[in-house]
Amino acid sequence: MSRNPLRIARWVVVPAIAVGLLTQCKGFLDTQPFGSLNTATYYKTAKDYESATIGAYATLQDLTYSPCCSTILKSGLLPDDDTRGGGADADNDFAWTPGNGNLSYVWDVSYRGILRANLILQQLDQTDQLTDAEKARFGGEAKFVRAYFYFLLARYFGTPPLVTTVATSIADTRPPNSDPGQLWDLIESDLQDAVTGLHGLQLENGRANEWAARALLGKVALYRAEWGGGPKNSPDAMSGVLGSSSVDAELQKAIDNLQAIVESGNYALVPYQNNFDYTTENNQESLFEMQASWGTDINGWAATDENGGGASSGTGRQTITGACGFNGINAPGCGDWGYGQLIATPTLVAAFQKFDSMAVTIPGQTIEAAVVTRDPRAYFTFYSTGQQFGHSNSGSCAAIPVPYNTKWSCDNDKGAIVASDTAKWSVTGYTPAKYIRPFENYGGGMMLNQSVSQNNERLIRYSDVLLMLAEAKLLKNNDVAGAADLINQVRARARNTWDAAYGAGSADKDLYASFSKPSTPAEWGSLADISSSVSPDSMLTALMHERRVEFAFEEGHRYGDLVRWQRAGLIDIPGRISAAKAANTTFFGDPQADQNWSKTNLLRPIPGGVIDLDPNLQQNPGY
Amino acid sequence: MRALLCGLAFVPLQVGLAAAQQKQVSGRVTSSVGNEPLSGVQVVVSGHPNVGTQTDQTGHYTLTVPAGSDSLSFSMIGYATEVAPIAGSSVVDMIMTPQAQQLTGLVVIGYGAKKKANLTESVGVVNTQEIQKVTVATPEAAIQGRVSGARVTTESGIPGAPVSIRIRGVGTVGNTQPLYVIDGVPVGQGIAGTASPLSTISPSDIESISVLKDASAAAVYGNQAANGVVLITTKRGKYGRPTIHYDGYYGVQQFPKYIDMANAQQWLAIQQDEVANYNSYFGYQPGSPDYRVLNPDLQEGSPVLASLLARNTDWTHIGIHDNAPITNHTISVSGASDQVNYYVSGAFFQQDAITQKWNLQRYNFRANSDFNITDRFRVGETFTISNNVTLRGSQNYGDGTLLNNLLGQPPIFVAYDTSLVSPTNPQGLSGNFQTAGIAIPNLNSTNQLQDVTDRLTRVLGDIHGEFDILPGLTIRSQNSLDYNTADTYNWQGNFTLPATGYARSPIAEDARGDAYTVVSTNTLKYGTSFGNSTLDLLAGMEANMSRNNSLSLQATDFVNDLYTLRRIPALGNTVLKRGGGAGEQNRLGYIGRASYNYADRYLLTGSIRRDGVSTFAPGHQWGTFPAFSAGWRISNEKFFHVPWIDELMIRGSWGQLGNSNIIGGDYPQYIGVNLWADYEIGGAVQLAPTPREVLANSSLTWETDQTTDFGFTSQLFHNSTNFSATYYQRDTKNFLVNVPVANVVGFKSAPINVGHVRNSGFEFEGGYNTRIAHAVDFGVDANLTTVKNELVSLTKDVYEYTQNGAYRTAVGEPIGYFYGYKTCGVYQSDPGDAAPTDKVSNHQPGAGDMCFVDLQGAPVTDSLGVHQTPPDGQITSDDRTYLGKTIPDFYYGVNFTAGLKNWDFTAFFSGVQGVQAYNQLRQNLESMSGAGNTTAAAAENRWTPTNPSNTVPRAISGDPAGNNRFSDRWIEDASYLRLKTLQIGYTLPASLLNGRLGNTRIYVSGTNLWTLTNYKGIDPEFTTAGSSYGTVLSGGYGSQNGSQLGARTDTGNVPQPRMFQVGLSTTF
Question: Do A29 and B842 touch (CB under 8 A)?
Fold first, then answer.
């Protein structure tokens, strides 16, 4: 065998090249995640946090989402004495089970929002590209969102787990129930930090500011005082809620923060109907709103988180309160998804006191007499017979303007809307109008058959601030005069809304032509100014009434109020149920709901799917 | 770039010259039985695998033999391979003996081939002759029932539907797909979410498929091989002049089984009962506000009732495409000379679905060639390009499955209404809007109105070179590119209330993306013999780099609805929805293997692979996976004298493999941020980046799959019979699962190393070939695999868990078993207090409601652990229990073949036993709580006071007592035995064609002709529901079939069609 130098060289050179190139492979695996944002590449700059906080706020839109039912609207609105659904309904009837999908949706969305806030707060600690002021501001916004959701969870579920850090191990995902005081402490300290961090900042609509934080803090403190038993030290108090605080301290905290908003002069009451009209969003009465928008196209089938395709597709909110199908019968014009699952109870209608009966005539048709109340807020709260409602889009009745009538039906042969004796889609004759009236105006030229709208959900209104302040003042030191002053501001505004409801400014002014505007306190009835010299109990009754008519059908207010007042010993729900039964009526607007309600229902069941996966979590008693 | 550099380290550069002196050899081959000429026998010059030919119709061959060749090898399936010396003669005749299975044939294994007789590893093989007999649309389907240990199931009967392959049970609940290696190039399991990685291959182009089942066989593929490896070798040219081969078939497909639904009268009776039972259940009286009434149109005396009932639409046949065509044509040219072999082919495949509006067309082109540059230097390439175009409607498009929806349509609804015909609705599709006040969307309408086009183009090519540095020492480098581009164009026309039953504005979305994977494999092989010993060594490295990008745009508001103008947004519509993404993954592996053979008696193989992957956190990227196997060919021992045993080998193996594949497990140490949400801030809609709801787990590490197996292979009774048996135990430790977590931290799931799963069982394979009455060749091959799947333990901090409300993972049970309530018949009278308090529905059962078993109370935990408690008089979630499992006890295949003169006959059965399915379709169709229709069986059988059924409850609006909750009512035995293929072929006599055509065979074939099952659904052969078919890019195809999560929930998938085909295969 010849010793060819080339051959020898190959034996040396080829492996040498190979080894040399192989060493270049070092680092081949050390790639950064490519083309994606994550905790290694995001949460660095102020611009990152500007957008990350939008992600946190966007969780609010998920709460109002659902193509049909699974929303806070249903689980938050239904179980009270203002609203009811059709027929047997678990939410309505307090037939709450751990398997209730609406409740677990609220749970999931809340912890989603908390994660988003927790992650922002954790990453803020690690970035060095922000000033202290920027950190305080973004931290304040995140803490506002976290407090909002923890407050929701505390009210619904009592002692849900308290999670303030981002889980890093499977063991972290099985926290036990929180200590109730601890939970409320965190909510309050988060809001206090938000007040500080957002102080003096003018942020865009949709972001929390100092006043939104103060309003929520005042509300939390008021709730905490009453959940803790209130001044009467009620036995229905939830033990531990007060922690190391006290009823007095909490009431004072509520007064301080709410008073600060009043004194700031930044907010005022606007015409009542502007609070539910999409053309007057983010007005001077609004402290905080869920921002809905039409974008290029609202997908009524998907929450913002499920849009799946980047910006600008709109973030609608659902309008399932529309008057439509009930007990299997769809009203014409209700389109496909207007379930009309929520209707107004007779007791709510009755709460708008000072009634007159009047005959209403619709050209070409005669419809039975309807009941109209002189509190103009009623007009903006629910529809009643004869009012302009919408257009039918059903068969031969398409495009015929439809007056509100619980028995309307489309006669396809005649191509006309007729009253049907068998059709029935509101058992009470009233369906919610908030956020829907004026019908043709609730978003993007929408028709009745649409289930989404671009109308913002007003989460904290100035009238709520006034009434909470009144409640805190009453409970703290029987400040009847202070309360009267605040309540009367709300009543005066309501009276000023007369023209828009029944007068020249109303779309139904012809219907109410014979209806005269009250001029004396007696004629205004419960809407007249309340005297500052009534007893504290009378003032409290007046306040409770005012909250009911002012906030009917607004997110979660009513049942939250009832539970809070029960816990503080201010009302007695079992007693009211018995009294209603004796009077052959119902308290919750449904015999099944009255029959099922017990003090177990002061809390809702923790979702069973969560307990399946977190064995350290205890179910609320009774479920 | 660095990847390529480090990949190309070994490219050989040496070029030499070959000197060749040749001579002609010819001869005739006959069968030992009947002395008949054998056509199609492969005649190859020993030591020159590319130099060979085939015998013609008369059994003759002629071959040009390189100088120095000393023998010829004769091989043909069904006959023992023979070797004959040339010994200077120019005529070599051969007589061949029929044999059940060739043990002398070569089997493709990782980075090489091995004599089958010397295989110490567990490898299943399917060859080209077998593939030809099954007329399959995809290569995976060719494996079904033919390889023990591999369970192959098509997700549904839709063309192009993904095929799932589970090798030796289910080791993980994440992605359980094996690694596919095509001609040495690993494809599939990449990060590109595309259709089956094998869609680029026409089945006619396949030479053989090897399924590497044990760790020893698969270990050389390291970290991607934990679920087994499927090696596919495509055809190369055979020695001889250019040969043109045509293969084609045409067939029709039929819907296999219709479910009888209630007629209009029965439907109305159920509606009436629903309302009446509802009112009586709650005690609502007429006049009470909650008293529920039927829609006026359905009440007695309604003027429209009679005409509605007269419609009595039979929805079972709507949406069906009967006699849907399927066709395939493949034409190839191949040949070889001393210096080069080549195989080029083109194929066209088209298939419609047996449901409406689904058409798949596929073009495949392939060029394979090898060049002998010198006698020591060889270069080869493969190049394929394929184009898949699917035109489809809205089927499975987010609104549930078409069949589920249509079967549930009330019989008073109609699918088409001539009064609705308009330019935008030429068919007169009806949404039955507000018919009798019922609002149920109609997916037949949306399916017809929606047009989705998927286009998928894939290019896969490699070039490889081999250089013999020294005798026995060969260096090989293979470098490949796998590039694919996908485009889904979705046009969703204006959904109007009259036509579809619900309204949606028109949307067009174009989503496209591309992905490529570059793989460089470089190996050094050394083989030597000394004395009776043979030693083979292999060392190498493999670098693998994948990238993908995607972009999507969505628009609404168009100039008009004309197909040609659909992409043109109307003036003023400037804002489009957009999305996109990108990803990458790098892998690096080092391979070592040594095989030792002493006198073909003692066989040993050891291998090791060290692997790294970029998507784990630093410190967790590398894993090392060793494997060993050994065999003892007892029949080669001198002392072994058992006349009826021709071959006997005892073999065993042990080895470990790694798996890094986990859904959502890329870069597990970071929390990803999604960009698909938006929200209005400051009056403008803005992007709202939100964290992905997956826990960041920086300690996530390799899943280790350890397999031990042992068994024997044998040839018996003068090679007429073969039998092999293997016991395997596959232990998957640290198995990777994206477990659901309690949503108290905002995360929905966490990728973790969750525990230890064991699959164990036996695999049997056997075959018998004989000739009956000197005329009929008869053969039978069968295989059977048993699986016992068990979760052995869970990692510390991980608890048993339930997910999707139906599946549970618990120690001592098979993973992902069905978990729900047990029923105890139907209450014949109101049980009152005798029934346990139902805390699940919160409503007590009445007469005609289901009885649920109060199994136990809430478990208590004390210092000794968790204890069961006796029944507590309540139905709660604690009363859920084991209801069934998704992994079968055993599965099997039996193939009968027979031949008589020019006729051949194949019947292939496959079956699965001991498996359950969740018949969600039936749950939907038998709920009897709403307006949807009910199966005829439930309609007739339902409980009424006069029909005391003990299996089907009463109809009641809204189902207050929860009769339809997830329970054993919906779990069914899904075992089946199916005649998969029945084929009769006829080979034309050479005389008939005057020798103008070569081997020409025509056949008729039937697929899925007969099924024996107790399953009440349409088809027991399905894997998984829920595959959304969203877009090719989003992983809509194949996104579910790789996963065991949600397996065997039947949502009304399109069944496997019954198919009849005629085909022709000819050479000229």
Answer: no
